[in-house]
Amino acid sequence: MTLSLYHEVEHGRLLQAYSLNDTTHTDTPQNIIETSKRDRDRYPIAILDHEDGNLVGFFCLHVNAGPKEYGYHQQDYALVRGFSIDDNFRNQGYGSHAFNDIFTFIDSALQLEVNHIILAVNEKNIVAQKAYKHSGFYVVKRDVEGQKGKLMIMEKKRDE
């Protein structure tokens, strides 16, 4: 598994095959890409299978204004938005691997000073909560109002 900053030329063809049938608690890669084009603080990130090059997942890393939406004003925070794994590649460990490698990726590819990753997960999305906990995230806030219901804010610190 490899994380890569999304590039239209390299990944556009792969995006056409991306399957995400349930967007109840997430956004589509296409929407993430379009929003990122208008906001320089949003980094669209492709999760690739390093053996066959398939696009297996996607998310946005949002710095500055992103974490501030949830009360985090420190410069070393980043917010994960729209995290998804392609329907054909779920339950194969890609999400866990992505979060295990995220700080290394941020250091090498983005060269940002990020020591904390936060994300908002719907309180009804138990499967995602378990997956994030398995990847080293822990709950820091509950009962946060979101567009699609109550959210929990989860955090992962560097070296945890």
From TrEMBL:
| Record has Transferase as a keyword | yes
The source's superkingdom equals Bacteria
What positions does the domain N-acetyltransferase occupy?
A: 4-159
- Report keywords, A-Z: Transferase
* SUPFAM superfamilies membership: Acyl-CoA N-acyltransferases (Nat) (SSF55729)
Q: Does the keyword Transferase apply?
A: yes
Q: Spell out the InterPro entries in the cross-references.
A: Acyl_CoA_acyltransferase, GNAT_dom
| GO MF terms held by the record | acyltransferase activity, transferring groups other than amino-acyl groups
Could you tell me what this protein is called?
GNAT family N-acetyltransferase
Source organism per entry reads Streptococcus cuniculi
